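Below is a concrete protein record.
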Amino acid sequence: MKLYYAPGACSLAPHIALAEAGIAADTIRVDLKTHTLPDGTDYHAVNPKGYVPVLELDDGSRFTEVAVLLQIIADRKPGVLAPEVATIERYRLNEWLNFIATEIHKGYGTLWHPEVGDAAVAAATKNLKKRYGIVEIQLGKTQYLAGNAFTIADAYLFTVTNWSHYLKLDLSEFPHLQAYMKRVAERPGVIAAMKAERLIK
């Protein structure tokens, strides 16, 4: 299995999932500025979409989109990072994965491009905080997003929320979220993945 990643990008989520599940995989760093691999080849040959992550299975098949990769990884170790398939608990997890992907992950897009103007950045910030308000309510009830056990949804939420530091998005109004981020950051699998990407020492 191979994971194509860029340090700190959304590919950190499947990287965390692999570490948390104890699944060995080759990791290949992608230069997103030049869209090249370490050997200089064009990354578009791996993923025509041009972005990370890509998970390549042992049979050579490749998959993109974080929420899909996370489920592939989780299903390699049933019951460790996700509830069993076709259960209410799994559907709830999928609900959170889709919410993170469409409402939070994509919500950061404008903040990475401040050239769009102050009004657009302010609107994107306001919308993101509305979404985090929903997360805050949930984290006031449970230790992790889908309950009291760490799941792939937490790998995803932690990854994108971590961008708030780089983008100077103040989330201090969400104390449950702040405590959650600290709790997740202390997990051995999270530390291992972040060290592998040289995000921490």
User: Anything to note?
Assistant: The longest helix spans residues 118-139. The mean pLDDT is 97. The chain has two domains: 2-79+190-196, 88-187.
